[in-house]
Fold:
Amino acid sequence: MRTGLLLLFLTLQLTHSVFAQKVGKSERILIKDGTRNQAMYVTQTNVAEDLRILRNISSPVKNPSNKIWKVLVSRMLSTVTDSTHRGVGIAAPQVGINRRLILVQRFDKPDKPFQAIFNPEILFKSDSVWNRTEGCLSIPDVRETVGRPWQILVKYQDINGLFITESVDSFTARIFQHEIDHLNGVLFTDYNPIYIKE
Structure:
């Protein structure tokens, strides 16, 4: 049934491509297919329809404070923290929505909360690179060492639509980079496996 919903989403997404900034009917259907605290299906690289979603470049979210995005944030949080997944970050394409929205566990803040990040853009990457093993909810049972910049400067909107620019480093910076990659159709397995500075 979930694969059927993803196929419906892809079909309706093509129909509504002219209205990329607005919340599409297909997006509403997928987001509301369950309670606010119910985990969503996680797209997988070994499913052809899912891989198409994961490889798409996601569209911006026009109004992060719209109620529908708050529902999606809640459902994404339930997905990334449920007993099946227990991740440290998740991107909207991983639940079938090609929008520029990620959830990042902020290990750099007290109590390590998850934060909704809309329309993120990396403005700067440090020359200092560090290697660490990564995994992904969409690629189960695969782990690889990836080199990523230690520190980034990132600009984004919060759940209320406020613009924030901040410097993030260490493991939290890695999560940001991994999840932002998803918004650009990039998977951690695409790295070779060492990051090369552009």
